[in-house]
């Protein structure tokens, strides 16, 4: 893999992040009421408003405000929350850490469930297993996260059964078992939805591979079915699977917003929803930016992993 | 047209999709007419009543008949999702076709911008847009439409690129046709297939996204009988009265399944791959 390619991709990542930041900034800047009014309430005296606007830099022209904000972001200063007055950084990164934990568990679940099931379906194409996998995945991709989460709550957290806690969060450093127990329902929800998506893709990817010339050639050479499947087909389907999982990080982020809200999990998704409800501008900007950046970064990582693993691909 | 329908119906998932679509069509058109009750009427004496002969799907915490609310809600839920998809498809295709046809630097800039937009997950983008526009059903439709357009632009651009180099486009250029004429008369009809496939699957997403936005309090507002909102309003009572969330949940899933099945069947018919 050429260094030039990596530099080019990093440059694109920079451009993407810049445009996203501009977008997020402008979207939140045209909010109906300005930050000073929101902070002081509608009965604030004009003098007090003016003083605060000056302090927050709201009297500056929009592009200067953006530059000030951007320079801050680059230096790692995302501003202070309008509600709590605390630095946004600490709050957002603490929440991001928790969300990443949730995401990692879900992706692990997907790798161990969706990938094998998709391959099983492809190998047994047209048979009963294939039908069941397809049927279940249709239901999975057609259920919004909030519906599945609510159904799981009713089913597994019913007060009389209470297999899993309905909400709450315990740091994993405090009590790992209790922490995982509290994360179980959000992780199950995310895993099921993602599995439905990824299983389908893996199935169609693997089906294509199984019809590829080199697989047919391997069969014709008289290699055992096991060797054909595991040495030839499986290896070549794993590469596209990485891309598939990376592409679905977008769904995962959307799912995390919903699931954290439902299970009262204090991650970056819930932070964003609360910030939107409270119109806490710096928090909305930081939350959105962090999520978009994570998504862009995961796509980049997937591309690089793909190139690294597949020696046939040569990028300029 | 008829032969397409036949080919869709010949596939198992296409056939199921078409049947569900027919059911959905009747639900949207005559559902509200045959609904047993007014969807907003409170039946005080039978609040949170379990499904029975009187209330087939049970009632919610205000004693409103859930079956009637589902039937009435089908109109707003399905029609608004279709509208959102149409907006997203129209905006996206316009940008995508222009960008792909013009090419060069313009295309490069457009695509960078679209990449950036696509770096924001749909739900997040829709939430941000609704933060600005204010939370209601109309704005939710707009927000979903806008959040769909980058994806549609991507698809239509890549199809446009493959058509741009074809002989009939070259012939039209040689005849001296204007760019707009070529884009609307030569390119647009020929990219229709892939766009229809993409749009059909998007309808399923739109339904789920709209319900999710309403659930989060950013879409339809009470007392609208919107399915996502119905679930959100009944969450307090879900443990004791499961039917209040079960029926709207099933309704959302069935509609989404319908469009997912149709989209897949259409893809097989319109973009055949060797199988």
What labels describe this entry?
A: 316 residues, mainly alpha, 0% strand, B: mainly alpha
How would you portray this structure in words?
The complex is a heterodimer of chains A (316) and B (275). By secondary structure, chain A is mainly alpha-helical. Chain A contains 13 helices and no strands. In chain A, helix 5 (88-123) runs antiparallel to helix 6 (128-142). The mean pLDDT of chain A is 82. Chain B has 275 residues and is an all-alpha fold. Chain B is 75% helix and 0% strand. Chain B is built from ten helices and no strands. Chain B has helices at residues 2-10, 12-34, 66-102, 104-118, 122-133, 137-164, 167-175, 179-215, 227-233, 243-270. Chain B is elongated and about 75 Å long. At the A-B interface, helix 1, helix 6, helix 7, helix 11 and helix 12 of A face helix 4, helix 5, helix 8, helix 9 and helix 10 of B.
Low-pLDDT runs of chain A? none
Helix content of chain A: over 70%
| Biggest beta sheet attributes of chain A | none
N-to-C CA distance of chain A? 9 Å
